[in-house]
Amino acid sequence: MVVLYAISTLLGGIIYLFFRVDVRPELERAGHWYVLGFFDIKEHFAAIGLALLPAYWVCWRRPVADEPTQMRVALTSILAFIVWWGFLSGHVANNIMGFGS
Question: Distance (Å, rounded) from C-alpha 35 to C-alpha 59?
């Protein structure tokens, strides 16, 4: 999970270059500031997710049988939310010009 998150963040950083050059100027000209705001929140969430990866790795490395699972559930839920937010906001930001707005 840690490796996959790191790889997807790295690939997202590569794709971000194309977004920054091709899509973002069009969204700024069209006045879609709310979409750009959601996309900026996505970037912040991805950075928070990268910071949570060491804690996630420690929690799932050697789970003890009598250890409470709330921390593992919380970290997994936060990372799942970040991944889905990143997918949905990136997809909408990239395709907003085709929605006719």
Answer: 35
